[in-house]
Amino acid sequence: MKLSPRWVTLGVATAMAASLSVAAWPAAGASAISLPSLVDNGVYPYPGAAEILEAQNVRLISGDGHILLADCATPVQGDIGLLKIRTTDEAIGADGIGRVCFQVAANSGVLNLEVPGVYEIRGDGLREGTGHQITAKLRNDDGESLTVNVDPDGYTQVGEGTDPTASPTMLLQLRAGTGPAPGTGAQAAVGKLAGDGRECTATLVAPSWVLGAVSCLAPDPNQPQLAEGAPAGATYVTFPGKAGIKVDWLSPRPGRDVVLARLATPVEGITPIPLATTAPTGVELSTVGYSRAGVTATDWTNDQQRTAQVTFTAATATTLTTATGPLVCSGMAGAPVLNGGKLAAVLSQAGQAGCPDPAGSDSSLTAARADDLTTWVNAITTAAADHTWTLADLPATATSGTAVGTVADSAFTGTGLPLTATAGATWKTGDTYSPAIAFDRTTGTLAAGGPAVVTDADFSLSAWAKPTIQGTYSPPSTAGGTVLSQDGVNTARFKLWIQNEAWHFAMSQSDVASPVWDTAVAPAGSAALGVWSQVTVTYKAASGLVILWVNGQNVASVRHTTKWKATGALRVGAHKTGAASLGGYFSGVLSTVQTWNRVSLTPAKNNHDFDGDGRNDLILTDSAGDLWMYPNQSSSGENTVSVSNRVKIGSGWGMGWVVTDWDGDGLADLLRSGSDGVLWMYPNKGGYLTSSSRDDVGSGWEKYTFTAGNANSNPHADLFAIHNANGTLFHYPDGAAGATRIQIGNSGWTGYRTFPFDFNGDNRTDIMAIDRNGDLWFYPNTSQSGITLGARTHAGSGWTNYKVAAMDLSGDGRTDLVAVSGDRDLWVYPGLGNGRFGTRYQPRSGGVIVPEWVVTAVG
Where is the Peptidase S1 domain (predicted)? Predict the structure, then answer.
């Protein structure tokens, strides 16, 4: 071998042959990867390196096959040419002028090499704005390293090119783009995961999450251990046909070679692969990923997805294994094992006999199971919470019944709050949510090292729970107890608990041992014995509104306005009852606890919802002219009107007003006209009416009897009005101001009371009307875009002395009539969704029918 003088000067001649051996394979800075790991280091020995060194004095070490040595005389095609390296040694290169050229064959690529005396690098762009983004790593004779961003369409001077007296520099690495080069293949959701000299396979399981192998990013691939948090170095995922996406968070699964990696931006246009529910043995399964199995002298990339069929012969709780598997080579760590198209496991280790390099030992294969990780994966991939405790990070050595030690917090921002268990909290497997944590109702609890939410500001809580009987408790309805709480000094700031098979949530008014509690109670059966349910609590500090949600449904609410800040620990499975005592220990199983320092759920808008909890409330004026709001604080059948929590919202109102959400903010406002004919809108400001901010809607309304509804596609409320003199009925689309009214009824409507709502379930606003004789009539809307009244049908009689409002009070999606009779009884006529009503009932407050409703108007 003939060496250039420059090589001799740098003292590398004696190490030349040895450096071309397998020992030189890993990229600079990457740790060696030994069998049986399937982790790849992302590079392969450059084919024909010895011959190239002999002919051109260019030492090519390793790369990923996307930056290739090229003939500098290669004809130019398009706007991309060759990357050109100039050196001070004319013996380097094929043309005798100290020049070496390379072709960049992909958006991303890497080449490890040694070219001494480099003073200039020319980008491969042939006109302004073209060329690959290239980073060059160099080292000077003094041992100093430097990294240079190469001008894509120009010249970049380095070493002696910047200063003739500078120390000569050796080019060590060329890198194009970021992350691995995108692959090709039929499985769009299977991509490459690469970082810090490692390259593996990963699978998209949610728009912003991939599932792969911990070993790919662990310090020792054969000891797959990794801390939760941001990656130690730049880490990327690429999918077929997609640019690289940065990974910004890693959530390893304790006890097995599985990790969830969060993508900085969600992937569009690719359907995630769901997790399987079984990982069978003795059945042929498929696996797909990126490996070295197909490396040749001319194509040594791992861009093409490679598939294999494997039949595992043995299984443990966390692994699948076989002693004789298919050819599986490095790069397949994290590759999905598919059972019916669903992800059952990820490949972890293999004997790799028959793989190109290094030489394998056998054809054994090991995969880490994922078929039991649905709860864990869903909890993390769907979390937008500040804190998420999956309660599913079962250690590898633990089994069902093993005492819980600590539970990790997937806190993507801020500081994590791991939970520490006491005796009585044990792991449970084999349930719907598995693993989960069982609590013994005696001593079992988990506690964080501090508060999870700021209790005098907005916050939200969520948990999955299944109450069970522990021992011989009688009756079964006593099962349950406290699920979540946060400590004050002498009591809990809040407590979420199950009692009598119903969810309850309460906030204390002060930090004393026996405080006053503001409590929301969900319907009976909302937390049935032996049944999983998800409970969520939202608290809006400005209004004091607490909403209790069960399985995504808004089921109860309460107003809590006495604020104080609890700085003690978040607690799972019990609550604080005194300065040094706990109580309310939970009996059952819990999974996936989450907290937010904001409101995580917002109720749907309803035009009669005055307090913002998503349920229509009852508004009325009493004989003194005072205006009252009776909150609808439960969806439990007849128990829908709270008398004890009524709020006075005005004085001097009398009659002549209607309720509607006029300004579209989700809170019911009031419209009222006076004797002067001016129509005013009184906006709802956080549950209260303010005369100072009322708006003038229009004038001339002393001649009309009006009501409000919505009969077109514009969400703004419409007005409906009867001209009292001639009896014509008009529709004012989108309100009075500037609207062109439409006559929808001829003369004869004088003295009628109208209620414009959808009464037959066709998503069109109909008219229900009470005539002068007290008969109730249903007028269906036959129009697709506005309102055209069809033939009326008789819906009832005897309504003369009733004061009536229309709304969905029961929360079943059908319009009801709420009425106070001449006998001063409050009745609800439940809508059937067909223009008719079911058997009337008297709504209860706290389970009690309230008599003597002395009112002048109802809305």
Answer: 158-382
